[in-house]
Amino acid sequence: MTPTRTTPLRREHHITHWDPEDTEAWEAGGKNVARRNLVWSIVAEHVGFSVWSVWSVMVLFMPTEVYGIDAAGKFFLVAVPTLVGSLLRIPYTAATARFGGRNWTIFSALVLLVPTIATLVLMANPGASYTTFLLVAALAGVGGGNFASSMTNINAFYPQRLKGWALGLNAGGGNIGVPVVQIIGLLVIATVGNTAPWIVCAVYLVFIAVAALGAALFMDNLDNQRADLRAMGTALRYRDSWIISFLYIGTFGSFIGFGFAFGQILQINFLAGGDTAAQAALHAAQIAFLGPLLGSLSRPLGGRLADKLGGGSITTWTFVGMSFAAGVLVVTGTIDDGRDGAASTGIMTAYVLGFIALFLLSGIGNGSVYKIIPQVFVEHSRRIPGATDDERAQWARSMSGALMGFAGAIGGLGGVGINMVLRASYAGEAASATMAFWVFLAFYLVSIAVTWTVYVRRRPRSPEVPAEPAPVPAAV
To answer: Who contacts 99 (Cβ-Cβ below 8 Å, separation ≥6)?
Structure first.
């Protein structure tokens, strides 16, 4: 597992027989290898998230009178890369096992050049059809797939006792790509106005090159990664896999959905208050990045708390908090709808605080839900008849990695749902988001009941086994 033990790190960045549960090897240098891979995994995933969410920034540069796209059309526009990125997470989950974590990270980083260049060209030459915008936005979805391959890869590097923290840090560092691209958008708007969105894309061409080069120089491939589509099929035979995926809709779906929509919601309110398009874009950008930033920073905290207190308990309380935050938005929206004219300062403050709380709590929930995954499959592995401890550990890692990709895909679809619900809400007679806030509140209440029933009230319990116990995969 280290250069001085029986599993040497060779010059071609390949490690054989990696065993993070070997405490002696871990302390002798294995943790340094894992940390190095974690750092560059975070960098690459961070850039992927930024490219994935670049259209949440581009819509701030698109006044309706110039681009001919109304608010409902913009919500659909940012939903398209969310959808594509979510679906790509399923094949991306298998990619690190098939091609190697280092190799796939290099490739997936370089692929980001395609949507970045396409967006740069399109935004520098306005006047294209709405269909063209949708197609280019869809290309940005490749950035969403990076999360699944990155999480699967880092899951294989870390021991069970440290997975919550490592996965939370990896995901949080990636998630922070959402506010960073928004901050860069803010700087562009503040310095040159809302007429040069291509500058944001130009900056990311440099970041993409740095991520790919860093992965090539400092990351490694593991020969014992076990996460492919067959493993995913096996993982989905367990009820826990579907429950965890549902819960991830409420946490990650909220994070990415609001991350894409928050700036536009603010911009709509500022325009209603009498701002010009440029003023509304600037004011929205000055606030919008705060939510995704806090949500990203809180994700490692969620993983750490789950390591100590249990993923089920932390996730339950997270949904309780999110229900209160959604309730604030419902009350605020109802009051706002009942008044004529622009939203008051108090109303705008309540909107911002409600969304900030949702971002912060969704980040904590992201970390705690992902902590449940390896814990669940360790429990299931104990019920496999005739397996050795090493086979059980290998099977648990394989199933965990596979489910991380599937849950990530389903969670991302929650982000699509949020933008579509907001689109329908603004397209209605009231032309407000209040109806959408009611939908979010109802979902969080259901999530409380599910989490408490399955992972708090009934724990500890013996994990269920499918009708025919899943065999230990020899080479999945």
So the answer is: 107
Average the pLDDT over 83-91 and give the result: 92
CA 72 and chain centroid, separation: 24
| Cβ contact 323:448 at 8 Å | yes
322, 254 contact by CB (below 8 A): yes
- B/e letters for 61-85, b = 16+ CB within 10 Å, e = fewer, are bbbeeebebebbbbbbbbbbbbbbb
Number of neighbouring beta carbons within 10 Å of residue 179: 25
Phi-psi region of 238 (alpha: psi -120 to 50; beta: other; left: phi over 0): beta
Domains in the chain and their CATH numbers? 29-457 (1.20.1250.20)
Which strand (E) or helix (H) includes residue 447? helix 434-451
- Residue 372 exposure: Cα atoms within 13 Å on the Cβ side: 27
The CA-atom distances, in angstroms, between 284 and each of 64, 186, 310, 326 are 16, 9, 37, 20
| The dihedral formed by the CA atoms of 436, 442, 448 and 454, expressed in degrees to the nearest 10 | -110
For residue 125, give the 3-state DSSP assignment.
coil
Q: What pairs with residue 89 in β-bridges?
A: none
Q: 341-375: per-residue pLDDT in tens?
A: 777 889 999 999 999 999 999 999 988 998 888 88
Helices marked H in 7-67 — which ranges? Answer: 23-25, 31-52, 54-58, 64-67
